[in-house]
């Protein structure tokens, strides 16, 4: 345990992180691109049309990965925030700050693709469906986190305030989700459910889905590393090691 | 040629499918571009700040 | 030097009540705000009493929520500006404990009057007669949830210049469950259905937020004080 913590602290020291992350980024970005190309081909060309939804089922291959990962983003943002608060690790706050805009853009994409999927299946771009509504709330939570962090002129204070908000939010997400679900079932008897058909989903549809999911995950790791490096630069701009790294 | 047009039209669902893919790709690539642009700006700022501090 | 917990608790509530007694207009503002918002709905939609009856529960809930938030926004502002927040932090009594005292004083001044005012507002909107008790019970629980989350938001934004605008953005998504449960309980009662399920869920949410939120509020206040 101790050895692990030592390793963890060393990896999390800003200069060390800055160095290893620089070499790590291409190792995520290149496979992400390759997988995305394969995934796009599978999703748009070879995958079959659904007997109920027709070609709109292809929206699933972008919508589902993006929606899953946006929720993942919030959870990891809250975990990073908690680590930052408890062990006072500056890098963890930088990671949380880096995830927020990425997660917000994924949530917005999930809403956008969801409403484009809704038009042919429900007949309207927006319904106050449980999923759409909870994702709208998720978008607001991301926005609140980013706005609160930016409202402080002192980076470290902003980090800690936003971290508390992220933790309060992550406790609330299931409550919001279940209450919205409960509220929604009162209004919409037997609306079309995205997950319903998935128990018997054909492998010809699973492959493009998982390829895309994997591609977006790798992309996200690369993006968060890039953004965390930027956050480290902002936080450490007056430190000596930065000058050593830059002036060569 | 019509084969491609058929594929593109997706039985009329193409209007919904293509915007999803295009906007998603644009946003994901845009995120990367913004991150690299920010990085360039930050590095420029820091480079400018070094000589100022040395001259002090 | 160390003050007993009870002394600190009672002292804090007394101080807040006395202060708001001195600034009576400020204390009453949320209640006026509540009445004005209620009056806007018939004007904007329809004076038709049947149509109003359908939305009465929801309108009262939204108005109460906005009024409660409006007043919670400045929960710690005064104490932050005159330095009593720092005294609170140094007094040796845990911060979360004093936060509960402040919340309670605030709830006595805003939450409770809203609960009492709500039936009158609901009557003006022609709410079904069976729903009044449920409305008041739901608001009693709901205002406690609001003040718990509102306190977190107020503590987070207390040292921020633009805190006034930021506050609702932070707090509103967090109190969606309370709004849904409270408004639905009222609606059920108005339709003659059993509001028990929604009310007990709201009670659970109330217990959860009242017992956990003060710790988050105290931590947020400490961020602003450093």
Give the helices and strands, then pairings:
The complex is a heterotrimer of chains A (248), B (56) and C (226).
Chain A: H1 2-12, H2 14-46, H3 60-87, H4 90-122, H5 130-151, H6 155-187, H7 203-235, H8 240-246
Helix pairs in contact in A: 2-7, 3-4, 3-6, 3-7, 4-5, 4-6, 4-7, 5-6
Chain B: H1 2-9, H2 14-55
Chain C: H1 5-22, H2 24-44, H3 49-72, H4 77-81, H5 84-90, H6 95-124, H7 132-157, H8 163-171, H9 176-190, H10 196-225
Structure in words:
The complex is a heterotrimer of chains A (248), B (56) and C (226). Helix content of chain A is 81%, strand content 0%. Chain A is an all-alpha fold and 248 residues long. Chain A has one domain. Mean pLDDT of chain A is 86; it is low at 189-199. Chain B is mainly alpha-helical and 56 residues long. Chain B has one domain (2-55). Helices cover 89% and strands 0% of the residues of chain B. Chain B has 2 helices and no strands. Chain B is rod-shaped and about 65 Å long. The model of chain B has no long low-confidence stretch (mean pLDDT 84). Chain C has 226 residues and is an all-alpha fold. Chain C has one domain (5-225). The longest helix of chain C has 30 residues, at 95-124. The two termini of chain C are 23 Å apart. Chains A and B meet through helix 2, helix 3, helix 4, helix 7 and helix 8 of A and helix 2 of B.
């Amino acid at each position: 345990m101790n050895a692990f913590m030592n390793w963890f602290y060393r990896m999390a020291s800003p200069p060390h992180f800055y160095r290893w992350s620089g070499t790590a980024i291409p190792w995520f970005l290149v496979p992400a691109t390759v997988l995305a190309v394969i995934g796009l081909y599978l999703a748009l060309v070879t995958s079959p049309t659904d007997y109920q939804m027709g070609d709109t089922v292809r929206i699933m291959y972008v919508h589902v990965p993006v929606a899953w990962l946006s929720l993942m983003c919030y959870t990891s943002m809250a975990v990073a925030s908690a680590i930052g608060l408890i062990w006072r690790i500056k890098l963890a706050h930088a990671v949380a700050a880096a995830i927020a805009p990425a997660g917000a853009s994924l949530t917005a994409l999930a809403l956008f693709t969801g409403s484009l999927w809704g038009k042919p299946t429900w007949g309207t771009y927006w319904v106050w469906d449980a999923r759409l509504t909870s994702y709208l709330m998720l978008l607001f939570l991301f926005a609140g986190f980013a706005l609160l962090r930016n409202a402080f002129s002192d980076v470290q204070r902003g980090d800690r305030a936003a971290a508390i908000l992220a933790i309060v939010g992550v406790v609330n997400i299931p409550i919001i989700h279940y209450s919205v679900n409960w509220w929604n079932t009162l209004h919409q008897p037997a609306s079309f459910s995205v997950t319903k058909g998935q128990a018997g989903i054909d492998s010809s549809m699973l492959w493009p889905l998982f390829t895309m999911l994997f591609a977006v995950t790798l992309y996200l790791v690369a993006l968060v590393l890039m953004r965390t490096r930027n956050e480290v630069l902002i936080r450490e701009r007056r430190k000596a090691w930065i000058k050593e790294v830059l002036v060569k | 040629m019509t084969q491609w047009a058929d594929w593109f039209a997706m039985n009329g669902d193409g209007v919904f499918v293509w915007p999803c893919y295009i906007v998603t790709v644009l946003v994901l690539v845009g995120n990367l571009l913004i991150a690299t642009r920010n990085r360039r700006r930050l590095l420029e700022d820091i480079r400018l700040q070094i000589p100022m501090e040395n001259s002090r | 030097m160390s003050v007993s917990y009870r002394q600190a608790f009672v002292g804090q509530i007394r101080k807040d009540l006395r202060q708001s007694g001195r600034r009576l207009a400020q204390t009453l503002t949320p209640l006026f705000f509540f009445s004005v918002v209620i009056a806007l709905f018939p004007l904007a939609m329809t004076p038709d009493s049947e149509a109003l009856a359908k939305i009465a529960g929801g309108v009262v809930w939204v108005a109460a929520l906005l009024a409660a938030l409006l007043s919670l926004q400045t929960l710690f502002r005064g104490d932050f500006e005159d330095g009593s927040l720092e005294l609170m932090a140094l007094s040796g009594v845990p911060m979360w404990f004093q936060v509960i005292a402040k919340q309670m004083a605030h709830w006595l001044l805003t939450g409770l009057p809203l609960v009492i005012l709500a039936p009158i507002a609901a009557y003006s909107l022609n709410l079904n007669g069976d729903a009044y008790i449920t409305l008041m019970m739901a608001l009693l629980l709901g205002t406690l949830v609001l003040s718990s989350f509102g306190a977190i938001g107020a503590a987070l934004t207390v040292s921020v210049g633009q805190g006034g605008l930021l506050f609702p953005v932070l707090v509103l998504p967090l109190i969606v469950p309370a709004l849904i449960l409270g408004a639905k309980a009222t609606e059920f009662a108005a339709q003659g259905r059993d509001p028990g399920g929604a009310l007990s869920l709201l009670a659970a949410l109330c217990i959860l937020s009242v017992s956990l939120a003060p710790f988050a509020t105290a931590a947020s206040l400490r961020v602003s004080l450093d």
